[in-house]
Amino acid sequence: MKPPRALLALASAAALLAVGVAHDEPIASASVTTPRPERVLDSRTGIGGIAGRLQPGRTVRLQLPVVDGAVALNLTATDAASAGNLRMWACDDARPATSNVNFLPGRAVANLTVVAVDEGGVCLSATAGVHVVADLTAVFGDDADIDVGPTHRLMDTRASGERLRAGTTTRIRIAGTPGIPSDTPAAVVNFTVVSPAANGYLTAFPCSSSTSTGAPPDASTLNYSAGQTTAATTFAQLGAGDVCVFSYRDLDLVVDTFGSVPAGSPIDGVPPERLLDTRDPSSGPARSGQTIRLGVAGRSGVPDDAAAAIVTLGATDATSRGYVTAWPCDQPRPLASALNFVPGAVRANTVVVGLSHDTGEACLYARTADGSSVHLVADIVGFVDGGAESAPSGPTTASTEKFTSRFTTLPPGSALPSGAECASRVRPTPEVRPGNTAANNTRGSRATANNRDEWGGFDRVDGDFTGTTDEIIQWAACKWGIDEDMARAQVVKESWWRQSTNGDNGESWGLGQVKDTFHAWAFEYSVNARTSSAYNLDYTYASWRACFEGVYSWLNTVERGATYRPGDAWGCMGVWFSGRWYTQPAVNYLEGGDTDGYGATGVKQHYSRRTWTDPAFVSG
Questions:
Q1: DSSP 489
Q2: Of 83, 253, 89, 281, the residue nearest 170 (C-alpha)
Q3: Which domain holds residue 320?
Q4: pTM, whole model, 2 decimals?
Q5: Tens of pLDDT, residues 67-102
Q6: For residues 620 and 618, what is the distance between their CA atoms, to the nearest angstrom?
Q7: Which residues share a beta bridge with 357?
Q8: pLDDT digits (tens, 9 = 90+) for 243-268
Q9: Paired strand residues for 247
Q10: CB within 8 Å of 316: residues ≥ 6 apart
Q11: Are strands 101-103 and 84-89 parallel, antiparallel or unpaired?
Q12: Which 8-state DSSP code applies to residue 138?
């Protein structure tokens, strides 16, 4: 059975909600727009023209600042008088038999809702008295963007009597079912878990082929509590027309489709993949009032010019009620909530969030009632491509928080940030190698650099930084524009994150194993690749960057012949080890097959396994 990494347990308590204001001007909807999230309904304050709890038997029309098309809303039920559900639909359609949000008294429950609008409005009803909050997060212009139709039920295991079993994966046909074209690459699907045997999670992902399901990713689509009914809507990418569902516990499952994403739409699905997990040793919990800048563009199949991301957010290990807000980082923080949580657990919700135009980031803001911290998890499930029309950027607001997005690989020719800038952007992380303390606290300087300048980049090497081992890895990755997890994985391979490591029969030193017989200039000063952790990795990734930029043209004269080229991040990592271009030792180094003292494991395996988060690694 898959370990409970994605498990987010839930507990009851009243939830705290952010309060905001509605749009004043209609939003044109010729294509996908991802405005800063705006509150369009709050029955507690009368926003949206609805004041007081929505009562059973009453249908209300919510007028939206939208011309036509469809919308994505974060729909939240709170302060319920009793258990019940919310339903939202296009007013010119019949009220659906399926629900968007299932709620209980004393809890705030949110769910992504994608619905077609009728002359700028949608209809809403509830089966029990409840306050309703809605935040507008995206507008879809026409059927070329997304085709939202009447809800269709695909599965209900309560009727079939075949509950999903713990640890199993179930394949569900989506393409070609009523309302869903046979060639659709993704669909808007609502999963409802009923009567789960215990707390757990459910993951939806594209099946690998027509005959196999594939392994579930380390991501969660829906989190549930024992015995409770919980719903979650997501943009589900399909594999061979099917979606696969992994369940951690025995449960009944109801599956409804709300619409499809046509081929050629600017909306694209990606296999679920984890972007953020503050429970990792390399991170830390989100403090109340903290803004986290989440790097999205350029990661996990999301293109560099993506306009928006579709992300499943989770909050766990909270000791107080609270909420999370998500928005594009080049906009002011809105008064809206993407997720509400309660003590002792995680809630999860899928959101459509715009990305900042300059950096491709989404900002996350966590707030708790008592100022305590909370762990956040973010899984990417899709994006809106850069051809989409985004709302104009507002003024960038100053932040007292450190820049906290992860560092990714910058293309050849990119302007590289300075060491000082990177020092201000490093995220604080705990020390897992106390034996590195002396070398980690040894700061280099410009006098340390050898100015070996075959490229114009080595004279930037100075090692002018101190911090924990992971902070030094982040700093070097930022300074030289390499994916920080690639650097973490390589440092695992080279030294198991021990600066004291002395390999290659005494020739190689430190975190990156700089070889004194080949890189003698890295050892010419008293502060050098042996005595300073920061200098060691500063030099290591300066060499990697020189290769990545295409400087090492001499590689085309040895062994392989005319195959070396700029822009191959993994190939240049192999060059660091073997000094040659894709020789067998370099391939073994990357892929596995050589013995590194910690098992026959390649850098890519450490990268995919995130070895640095394994308890055995953390303990030394």
A1: H
A2: 253
A3: 38-384
A4: 0.59
A5: 678 888 889 998 998 999 999 998 888 888 888 888
A6: 5
A7: none
A8: 999 999 999 999 999 889 888 888 88
A9: 168, 202
A10: 8, 9, 279, 341, 345, 346, 374, 375, 377
A11: antiparallel
A12: E
In a domain, 217, yes or no: yes
Residue length of the chain: 620
Q: What is the DSSP letter of 69?
A: S
Q: What are phi and psi of 524, to 5 degrees?
A: -80, -15
Q: Tally Cβ neighbours within 10 Å of residue 394.
A: 11
Specify whether 377 is located in the same domain as 426.
Answer: no
Tokens coding 36: 């800063």
d(CA 375, CA 439): 31
What local confidence, expressed as pLDDT, does residue 477 receive? Answer: 96
Domain end, chosen from 361, 384, 407, is at: 384
Q: Which amino acid is at 541?
A: Y
Residues 48, 49, 53, CA angle at the centre, nearest 5°? Answer: 95
Dist. CA 205–CA 239, nearest whole Å? 8
* Run of H or E residues at 148: strand 147-156
Terminal CA-to-CA distance of the chain, rounded, Å? 27
> Could you tell me if 294 and 440 lie in one domain?
no
| Rounded distance between C-alpha atoms, residue 570 and residue 604, angstroms | 9
409: which residues sit within 8 A by CB, 6+ positions away?
Answer: 298, 481, 482, 483, 486, 569
Question: Is 464 in a helix, a strand, or coil?
Answer: coil
- CATH assignment at residue 570: 1.10.530
**Strand ranges in 317-461 using DSSP code E only, listed in sequence order:** 322-328, 339-341, 347-354, 361-368, 375-384
